[in-house]
What we know:
By secondary structure, the protein is mainly alpha-helical. The chain has one domain. The protein contains six helices and no strands. The two termini are 23 Å apart.
Amino acid sequence: MVNVLLWVVVIACFIFSFVGLVYPIIPSVLVIWAGVLVYQFGIDSNELSWVTWTMLVLLTVLLFLADYLANLHFVDKAGGSKWGMRAATIGLIVGSFVIPPFGVIIVPFVLVFLIEWLQKKPFQEALKVAFATLIAFLSGTLAKAVIQLIMIGVFVADVII
């Protein structure tokens, strides 16, 4: 009975990790790791191989890099400022609570536009940077979703095989 309850926790962690894609305040990758650790220390401490642990660590690093590089690439390419990038981050956090889940798209877009425009950038350029921030968020979210699925797949494959 305890194992069934622990499996429910593991599966819930994996599902809940995808909520973090829409609510960035939830650390998705840490939720996946929580599920893996519940399995490791609650169900079977000898099951997961060193290959799985290595893959999970590498995929975690890749997940952080994918998110960071997507933002850096799109916002830099559009001519965004450091303040614009900070506004995007603040907008993601605030947007998680304002008109969820659409707030994570709308609030950063508006904040970046306003920050860039207030820094004397022309309207069109500020709008371009705001759109780049939106594309960065969406592409980073897609990359994170794929990496999270791979992490869960690596775990499941090791448990089943």
